[in-house]
Amino acid sequence: MLIYDLETAALEKIFNEWNEPTYRVKQVWQGLYQHLYSSPDQFSNLPISLREKLSQEFTFTPFTVKTYLDSADKSTRKTLFQLPDGNPIEAVLMRYGDPADSPSAPSPLPEGEVRMGEGKKRRTLCISTQAGCAMGCVFCATGQMGFKRNLTSGEIVAQVMYYAQMLKERNETVSNIVFMGMGEPFHNYDNVMAAVDRLNDPNGFKFGARRLTISTVGLVPQIKRFADEQRQVNLAVSLHAATDAERLAIMPVNKKYDVNEVIEACKYYVGKTRRRVTFEWALIHGVNDTAEAAKKLAERLKDLMCHVNAIPLNPTRGYHGEAAKRQHAQIFKETLEREGIPCTIRMRRGIDINAGCGQLAAYTN
Ligand code: SAH
Ligand code: SF4
To answer: N or C, which terminus of the chain has less Cβ within 10 Å?
Structure first.
C-alpha cells in the first residue's frame, strides 16, 4: 500500500492494530510531510523494528522515474513517471522569477505578454490527476492518447512530494500547485479532493488552498459541487470557444454540457464563493483568435467576476491547428479588455520539451 494514500485516521487505525502509541502517527506524518523523508530508514526517531514494519507494509514511491527533460533555459523540468501497472504520467516544475528571468536581465518580451511572477521567485508544479484523459479535446496531447485510469489520491500527492523533496535539497519550496497536467480533475473528483485535503493538512504539508488551482474542461455538476463545498482553491475553466458550434468542433464534452450551462455553473460558483473564475483560452490561428471571437466571448462573460487566460496554442502531434500570431493575440486581448473583461496572454513555457499546456502525453519528443 502506498503511504501517501492514507489519511491520518487510517494510519492511526493501523498503528492501533500494531499496538503502537498514537504519538508515532504524528512522527510519521511529520517525517513524510514536513521533513519530506522518502524512505523508512530516514525516520531516525522511530525504533528500527517500526521502520522495518513500515518498509514491509508500505511503499514510499508509487512510481519509477523513467526520464526527465529540462528546457533549454533550465526554467522548466518535465518528469515522466511510470506507475506500477505500466501507465506513464507526467508532472512539470516551472521556475519563475530567477535571475535570468528578472527585469534586470530581460529577454525580449513581446508587447502584451506577461512574465508570470516577475521579480518574485516561484516554483509552480503542474500535476496529473489521471493517466490519459477521456474528454478528447482535439488540440490536447493527453486527450489524443485516450483514458487509461484515475490516479489515487496518494499518486497525486506523491508527484508533489517528489518535487518538494528535490527542491528541498536547494533550500527551495513549492509555491503553487496547478492540477493542469494529464487528465480531467473533476472526472476524478473524490481522489483529487482527498489529495487537496492531504496537501492542506495543518499537521502535514500545510499547503494553503489559495495556492492551489484546479482546471476543468467544464463538468457542470462538479463545478456546482465544488462551489457548494466552499473551498479556497482557485478554479479555472477551459472554454476555448464562446458558441456551441465552435466549441463542439474542438471539445466533444460540449455535447454533454453546452456553453450556456458551463457559464451558468460558473455564475453559480462566483455567487456562492465570491471568488473570481479564470477562463482558459488556447488561441488557435484563424479558429478562435479573432476580434469577433473576443467580442462574442465578452458578451457571454458580461457581469461575471472573471479573468481570461489566453495561451497561444502549443503544438501537438494529433492536431494541425497553429498558434495565434502575436499581433492577433494582442488584438484579442485588447478587444476583451475594451469590453471590461481582464485578459492575460501567458508566455509559453517548456515548448522545446513538450511540457507546455496540453502537450503532456506518454511520449517525450
Ligand atoms: N483537463 C483539464 C486540466 C488539464 S489541461 C482542463 O482541460 O482544463 C490544462 C489546460 O491546457 C487546459 O486549459 C487545456 O484546455 C489547455 N490545453 C490543452 N491542450 C492545449 C494546447 N495544445 N495548447 C494550449 N493549451 C492547451
Ligand atoms: Fe483532457 Fe483537459 Fe486535455 Fe481536454 S484539455 S483532453 S479535458 S486534459
So the answer is: C
